């Protein structure tokens, strides 16, 4: 590179390669740093071994220092394997401990807490006191005389209720005996009809009733089921 007459004398003493690199650095920094200062700074850093440099003829190529790669030996691999095995063993132990803790927590959740038991005991005590108060009140009211008009009204209501049930059952009974008469011969006596009805209703008594004198004919005859 040519240098005109206005060039700094210190810059003129630089080697062409240093001058070129100094010009490039100065241009990249938009001339914020002079070419002479950039060339001198590079050379000082190289001499101080803060950067690297390689000479190729009249050129010096500067570069950043690179750390030597770490050599991985077999001992390093063995150490790493041991650490991995220890970590895996700790992990297995932690997992087993985790399962035990979960089981203990589940057992604790299944058992009621002391505070809950105390609360339930208090509630049961209050319920017992309330029930006893109601029972004493009802016992006291039971000894009190009931008005006559209330007793008579209740009795009439019960009588009407059971009278209705009795009428309904009497009608069902008449219909049942009518069907029985239709299924038996016309010369069957009422006593025999009564025994036959018991035999139909309670088959387990047929053997006992069959020994009764005078009803062997009914016992031998087939029993027609009521439809």
From TrEMBL:
Q: What is this protein called?
A: Homologous-pairing protein 2 winged helix domain-containing protein
Please verify whether the record's keywords include Nucleus: yes
Organism (species): Aspergillus fijiensis CBS 313.89
Which InterPro entries does the record cross-reference, listed alphabetically? WH-like_DNA-bd_sf
What are the GO BP annotations of this UniProt entry?
homologous chromosome pairing at meiosis; meiotic joint molecule formation; meiotic strand invasion involved in reciprocal meiotic recombination
Q: Which residues cross the membrane?
A: none
| Primary site of residence | nucleus
Which compartments is it annotated to reside in?
Answer: Nucleus
Gene3D superfamilies from the UniProt entry = Winged helix-like DNA-binding domain superfamily/Winged helix DNA-binding domain
Q: Keywords for this entry?
A: DNA recombination, Meiosis, Nucleus
Molecular function, one GO term? double-stranded DNA binding
A GO cellular component annotation in the UniProt record: DNA recombinase auxiliary factor complex
């Amino acid at each position: 590179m040519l240098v005109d007459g206005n060039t700094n004398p210190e810059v003129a003493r630089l080697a062409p390669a240093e001058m070129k690199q100094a010009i490039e650095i100065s241009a990249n920094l938009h001339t914020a740093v002079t070419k002479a200062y950039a060339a001198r700074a590079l050379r000082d850093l190289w001499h101080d071994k803060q950067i690297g440099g390689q000479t190729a003829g009249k050129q010096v190529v500067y570069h950043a220092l690179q750390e030597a790669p770490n050599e991985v030996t077999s001992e390093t691999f063995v150490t790493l394997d041991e650490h991995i095995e220890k970590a895996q063993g700790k992990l297995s132990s932690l997992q087993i401990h985790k399962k035990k803790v979960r089981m203990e927590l589940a057992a604790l959740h299944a058992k009621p807490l002391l505070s809950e038991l105390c609360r339930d005991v208090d509630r049961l005590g209050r319920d017992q006191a309330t029930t006893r108060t109601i029972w004493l009140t009802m016992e006291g009211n039971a000894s009190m005389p009931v008005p006559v008009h209330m007793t008579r009204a209740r009795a009439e209501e019960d009588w009407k209720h059971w009278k209705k049930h009795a009428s309904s059952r009497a009608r069902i009974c008449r219909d049942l005996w009518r069907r029985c008469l239709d299924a038996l011969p016309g010369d069957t006596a009422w006593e025999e009809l009564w025994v036959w009805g018991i035999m139909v209703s309670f088959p387990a008594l047929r053997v006992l009733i069959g020994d009764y004198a005078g009803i062997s004919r009914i016992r031998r005859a087939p029993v027609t089921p009521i439809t």
